[in-house]
Each structure stands twice: as C-alpha cells, then as structure tokens.
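Exercise: predict the fold of this chain.
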Amino acid sequence: MQNFISPICINPDVHNILADESSNDMRERNKLLVEVCSSFNLKVMDISNNKSEVHLVTAENHLNAGYIWSSRTGNGDTIYFYSNPLVSKQKGSANSSADTRDSKKIATLIANIRKHGEIPTEEGLSNTYKAGLRSAFRSIGERYGHDHFEIDDSLALIATKVVLGIDKDIIDSNIESLKACYNKYVNKLNAVKQLESHKERFAKGATFIGVMSDNHNLKYTKTYYLIGEASFDMNKDEVTIHGGVKRYSTLADTSVAADAMIIRTYLDGKTSRSDKENELGMNRNDEFHHEIDVAQGYNNYRELFALIPNHHE
C-alpha cells in the first residue's frame, strides 16, 4: 500500500506517518485513502494529531476537499467515512453527522458521493466560498442601514401641529432643532449614497483573499490562504467567481503581498478589530474599511474573506 500512497502525498512528513501500517486500523484507513484519492483526483495535505483523519485537497490548486477516516464497531466491522464541504445530508445517520457519508464498503461510499453530486471538484468547492464572499460584498453600507428619516416624538408632534395649522407659532422656538434633525438626515443620506457607489465599484470585480482555518486539529496546517477573483450582481444578490482559486500557505510571495501588508498595518492600530493569528490581522466580522478601501465578510468561524476592488475611486 505504501507504493500507492507516496504519489498522492504533498507533504513528505505526512507520507512518513501514513507509511506506518502496523495496525489494522491504519491499513483500513489507507485503503480508503487510496481509493478516494484515485476516484476523485485528490492529494493528501495533512493528518490530524491523533493520526486518524487525513486531510485531502484537489490535485491542481489544493482546495480543501475534506477528510477521510475509518473506525471499527463493537462487533469488529470497519466503517469508512468521508466528509467534504459538498456533503449535505438531510440529517445525520447512526454513525455520522449531516456533513459526512459513511459505509461499511469503500465502493458503496464512493458510489454514494457520486450519486448525491458531492464529488469535490474545484468548481464545486469554489462555489462553497460564495456565502462568505457575499457577506463581504454586502458589508459595504450595512453600518448606515436604510436612508430613513428619524425624528423624536416631541419634534414630530411640533411638526404635525404646524402642518395641520393647530399651532403655527410653536415653530419659531423649535426651528433650530428641526433644522438640525433634517441636516442629520441629509448627511446620512449622502453617506448611504456614497457607500452605494463604493458597493457598485466593488461589485464590478475584486480580488479576494480567503483566510481559512481548520477544526480537525491537523498536525501541520493551522491557517492557509486563498486568492481569486469575484464579482457581485447587486440585483440578484449573486457572487460569480472568475477563474481558478489558488491556495497558499503564506501571502508573503503572492500578488497580494503589498495589500496584505497595508491591511495588517491598518488593523494593528485597531486592537478591538484585529486578530494576530492570521497575516491580514483580520477578525471574523462583516465590515467595510473605507480608509484602506477594503471590505471583509465571513460565513462561518473557519472562513473569512477580504475584498480588494479592481476599480479604484
């Protein structure tokens, strides 16, 4: 089995761990690993600290393609498991949660993945990033809400009395308060219009940086990054990803290295909004940073996306 594992391992350290087939559980895990990788053109990126779960990625751009593992029941039967971002059952089974397929036969497990359209292709996996990207596009303008007119009850009553002719003299002593209220509305309306202009500019096209983390206690992978291009249809509320999405272990030598440095420097001065655990310094929220012309959004605690517009002000 070792001869089959070597070509599918990206990390030689992981290969050395997988080469240990001293137990039946390890041999069964490796049987599943080879079959899943050969069936779906996947590679091995990492392994969990307890050496049970193996992290898979696509062969071309190393996108997260999930995890495989196996376990034995009390009566000695081996159950094989595969979880990837495309798996979505209506509910969990006796042996696995809603995001995992399982079977006592490897061939049946792979057949079920095919049957339910859960083959981890790069296009399919890229589509799972759209929810987080949508949040980033939407973040531009969310802070200001709608362009509605706000007025407290006392001023509203005064204005109503004047309009209805009940007490026209009352306007003289309250005119400045009414002006201040209206000016506040105009300023807010202008801010909303400006942000809508920014949103339209971002929507035409933006480079995105994905900050991705893992919850499987992997031995070598903590945080990694994705880089790609996306646009946003504001009317349909739909994200389109253009071209391939590529994975990187660091942003240092990528096309966005300078942008990443600017973002990190800016957020380092915003302690409450910074996360030192990733190279962008971003924490997980939806926000537009007008000062540096960057938007960010997230879908879950493992994925965060930053947008850098292709069309500048």
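Check your answer against the key: The first strand starts at residue 42 and ends at 47.
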